[in-house]
Design a protein that fits this description.
Blueprint: E1 12-19, H1 25-41, E2 45-53, H2 65-77, E3 82-85, H3 91-101, E4 104-107, H4 108-119, H5 123-137, H6 162-196, E5 201-207, H7 213-221, E6 238-242, E7 250-254, H8 264-269, H9 275-278, E8 282-288, H10 294-307, E9 315-320, E10 338-340, H11 349-371
Parallel strand pairs: 1-2, 1-3, 3-4, 5-7, 5-8, 8-9, 9-10
Antiparallel strand pairs: 6-7
Helix pairs in contact: 1-4, 4-5, 5-6
The chain binds guanosine-5'-triphosphate and magnesium ion.
Magnesium ion (MG) binds next to helix 7.
Amino acid sequence: MVIEWGKPETEKVFLIGLAKNSRQRQEVEMSLEELARLTLSAGAKVIGQYIQVRPKPNPAFYIGTGLVAKLKEALVEKNGNCVIFDDALSPAQQRNLEKELNTKVIDRPILILDIFATRARTKAAKLQVELAQLEYTLPRLTGAWVHFSRQYGGIGAKGPGETQLEIDRRQIRTRIAHLKEKLKKLSNQRSVQRKKRQNLFKIALVGYTNAGKSTLFNLLTKSQVSTMDKLFTTLDSTTRVMSSGYPCTVVFSDTVGFIKKLPHQLVASFKSTLEEVSLADLLLLVVDSSQPNYQQRIAYTHQVLSEIEASTIPYFLVYNKIDSCDGFYPENNNHDKTFYISAKFRQGINALQAEIIAYSHYLQKQKNDFKS
Ligand SMILES: Nc1nc2c(ncn2[C@@H]2O[C@H](COP(=O)(O)OP(=O)(O)OP(=O)(O)O)[C@@H](O)[C@H]2O)c(=O)[nH]1
Ligand SMILES: [Mg+2]
């Protein structure tokens, strides 16, 4: 299910963010920059943005009615046809806004789900994204949500009647059950494969999207998975088994990146893909250190790790892109396994690899001690 964005040139978007107070404004500005990148990734064009400072969202419209009126005028003036909010809207807020603004209203989770839907390539990723979309849609299935996908043909498109809605709800529930069943089968297949790897040393690369995980993965495993300056290039896990140079067989996994306000339905349905992470012996937490808010991104990564029950796994903190840091180095945070690298320019890789080898010796010894 992909939102019909229409032709990119016809999709003109306003972005909206809310700051609790003026101190939070800068943070919201950065969040909107990221939202703009996500919007571009979805093939639409940003034509303006508003940040409102208010302590609490308006229950009916999320933003204040003054800004709703201003936005309405701006949409007409600039020929805009879509508004994207940086936070999750309640079903009622979304409905009220669409009615008042006479235009399509989307929030960050819907946008992220949409990008995932266009990027999903493998069977598992497609099923997982569809499941997440339907679970997000179900409580929102009212007049504003038409059948399985949102049809934004014309302005003010009418929703179906209550009977139709009930049929849709039932169909969605049936489809959800069907998708879960299919995913369970795939997950069982994966766990058979995983069992075979039980005694191997498993390392997973994790971190915020675009941190350079796949670039580092390619270096460590001499692979060629896709890397791009785009959000969510990787959606599926790739694993590579390495033995030369290590005291035991090592399995590296590259997987989906995290992002702020990742819809929890998405995390839940990606659980089986993310099992590569939750069952790892060691995580390489890759950070784009050229980003001013890199610390927040580390915090979000930890948040998702705890959601998938991976927060107790030992990790190396890998500050990547140090070539773009302008001489500024991120602080060590008292984490004793911290590395500064540039995966793109192959700097600092030997030291990281040496420590991975040392750690695999340590794990091997632990396993042997346990056996005897
Ligand atoms: N300057 C610089 N750019 C880098 C470095 N490492 C990766 N990149 C670039 O950063 C972008 C993202 O790299 P990826 O390896 O695709 O990042 P990722 O973490 O796998 O991203 P997703 O799969 O989208 O979550 C690409 O354009 C890379 O070329 C680095 O050390 N320095
Ligand atoms: Mg990647």
